Automatic annotation (TrEMBL):
A single GO molecular function term of this UniProt record: hydrolase activity
Residue ranges constituting the Dienelactone hydrolase domain according to the UniProt record: 31-214
Coiled coil residues, start to end: none
SUPFAM superfamilies on file: alpha/beta-Hydrolases
Alphabetized PANTHER family for the sequence: ALPHA_BETA-HYDROLASES SUPERFAMILY PROTEIN, CARBOXYMETHYLENEBUTENOLIDASE-RELATED
Organism of this sequence: Paralvinella palmiformis
Protein name: Dienelactone hydrolase domain-containing protein
InterPro entries: AB_hydrolase_fold, Dienelactn_hydro, Dienelactone_hydrolase-like
Domain of life: Eukaryota
């Protein structure tokens, strides 16, 4: 039986107002907290299954999802990510990490630069533009996950993530970098590209990574 999350609100410096998300587990009983940032589809059933603490913005189809992503207030989203981390710390988590998928993966990378409350980041198949964040300035551990069959050029395809890998290594970032014989959004249980084996392996790596770096 799946755990039922609790809908929560938390204060944020985002001009759009308070942040909101789903809280799973009791932070007082957890050694660390993990923010899970959704794909461009928003806080749909799939991401609720994974566990979420990020503002709600939901799309019903790919075109609408693309518009939401293109119109995202990245600065505001990063303020909300910082606020979510503070919320978890106030609730009892000693340290906080972040992971995310697609849009959430790009935000997880950006949060590694822009959100000092975040102590470890595990982005999935998403890279922010240089205008959002200079990833060579990352000072926390990163565990990156990408798909070898990803066709979203300019965001998460091999032609994008291979130069990123080289950039992070050259910058001396503490890095674990994994690629999978899968397509974009391979962790989405409800999507056509779902790959159960790659999902299980990647999630086990994220869990071990967060246990290693968050105390």
């Amino acid at each position: 039986m799946e755990e039922q999350g609790t809908f929560v609100n938390f204060l944020s410096d985002n001009k759009a107002g308070p942040g909101c998300g789903m809280l799973f587990g009791d932070p007082k009983k957890c050694p660390f907290g993990l923010i899970v940032i959704h794909e461009w589809w928003g806080m749909n059933y799939q991401i609720k299954r994974t566990g979420l603490l990020y503002p709600e913005m939901v799309a019903d189809d790919r075109e609408e999802a693309g518009h939401l992503m293109a119109g995202l207030d990245w600065s505001g989203a990063l303020l909300d990510t910082s606020a979510a981390a503070e919320f978890l710390k106030q609730k009892g988590c000693s340290e906080v990490g972040v992971t995310g998928f697609c849009l959430g993966g790009a935000l997880s990378f950006a949060a590694a630069v822009k959100c000092p409350q975040i102590k470890a980041s595990a982005p999935f198949y998403g890279i922010p533009s240089p205008e959002v964040a200079d990833l060579s300035k990352i000072q926390i551990p990163i565990q990156a996950h990408f798909a070898e069959k990803d066709e979203i050029i300019g965001f998460s395809a091999p032609v994008d993530y291979e130069p990123l890998r080289e950039k992070l290594v050259a910058a001396g970032v503490k890095l674990e970098f994994y690629t999978y014989n899968a397509s974009h959004a391979f962790t989405n249980h409800a999507g056509p590209n779902y790959d159960a084996e790659a999902t299980k392996l990647s999630f086990s790596r994220v869990y071990a990574f967060m246990k290693k770096y968050l105390k």
